[in-house]
Task: inverse folding
């Protein structure tokens, strides 16, 4: 049993790496404030952005975790997530990468009235119209 009990707090390679780089960026930002250096300020901002991108890329590569607790055997921080390739449901990072499972398509409006009796229809910018004969 760990110091946190059976809680899965998301200790992952992506999380630790992003946090380490983000901490370095925050230290550079602090040094920029103390020295009043614009160059250090922008370097610190760049490092913090690099931290976020690194964490995101590692998450997509399977070194992060999905939202919610993992099974007890997969809670180690060096355990690779095999479900990352198709994307985690409800995960913003996966959705931004174009992953996240199939989304429901909007319902197709079926023609009624004369359009339905005309046989085949076509969809245009103005809506559903009977196809030319």
Result:
């Amino acid at each position: 049993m760990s110091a946190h009990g059976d809680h899965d707090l998301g200790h992952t390679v992506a999380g630790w790496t992003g946090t380490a780089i983000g901490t370095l960026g925050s230290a550079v930002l602090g040094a920029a404030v103390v020295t009043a250096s614009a160059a250090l300020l922008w370097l610190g901002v760049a490092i913090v952005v690099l931290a976020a991108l690194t964490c995101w890329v590692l998450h997509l590569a399977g070194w992060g975790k999905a939202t919610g607790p993992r099974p007890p055997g997969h809670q180690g921080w060096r355990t690779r997530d095999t479900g990352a390739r198709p994307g985690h449901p409800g995960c913003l990072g996966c959705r931004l990468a174009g992953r996240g499972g199939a989304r429901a398509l909007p319902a197709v409006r079926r023609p009624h009235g004369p359009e339905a009796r005309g046989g085949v229809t076509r969809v245009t910018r103005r809506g559903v119209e009977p196809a030319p004969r």
